[in-house]
Specification:
The protein is α+β, with helices and mostly antiparallel strands. The chain has one domain (5-166): Gcn5-related N-acetyltransferase (GNAT) (Aminopeptidase). The protein is built from four helices and seven strands, in the order βααβββαβαββ. It has a seven-stranded mixed β-sheet, sandwiched between helices. A hairpin with a 2-residue loop joins strand 2 and strand 3 (59-67). The radius of gyration is 16 Å and the shape is globular. The chain starts with a strand and ends with a strand.
């Protein structure tokens, strides 16, 4: 039997399942993940995000989220507007990394956003995440937008560099 990989916009049920997987995977310190789950579900319900999932034989193995409307409590200047979506939460389950599944999901997401009228996408990366910066550059994120900080639910503050690419 040949493997079947599909990409789609996640349902709330899909999201519940995936977030429970992430919380269990981070069982040693699930606090941030629990808060992020509630925020992700609320953002989806309120139409601020489009979560994209890649499924292999029915199992969710990778994901990415596009913020298409700004969160009023966040500083999204230069990152989200009527023609710019902010991409985040790029995750692939460990056994499936490096096999091209996320690349297919990323392509699906970009094409979907393009058909919805978006002309530009942005991403954020911590400055010391050299490999992630190289991956984003490979995907065409070459325009530096700004540097800012982000505070996790547990109070951890991180520096973030934001980059953009035209669609």
């Amino acid at each position: 039997m040949e493997d079947t990989f599909i990409c789609r916009i996640a349902t709330l049920d899909d999201m519940e399942h995936k977030w429970e997987y992430e919380i269990a995977r981070h069982a040693d310190d699930p606090g941030n993940w629990i808060v992020w789950k509630e925020g992700a579900l609320a953002n989806r319900r309120e139409g601020r995000t489009l979560p994209y999932y890649g499924l292999l034989n029915g199992e969710i193995i990778c994901e990415a989220t596009a913020f298409i409307k700004p969160d009023p409590d966040e500083d999204s200047e230069g990152l989200i507007d009527e023609t710019t979506a902010y991409l985040c939460a790029f995750r692939t389950n460990p056994p499936y990394r490096g096999k091209g599944y996320f690349s297919k999901l990323f392509g699906y997401m970009i094409e979907d956003l393009r058909t919805r009228g978006y002309e530009r996408v942005t991403v954020g990366v911590e400055p010391e995440e050299v490999v992630n910066k190289q991956i984003y550059a490979h995907y065409g994120f070459a325009e530096f937008v700004k540097t800012d900080t982000e505070t996790y639910p547990d109070g951890t503050v991180i520096n973030v560099e934001y980059y953009a690419k035209k669609l």
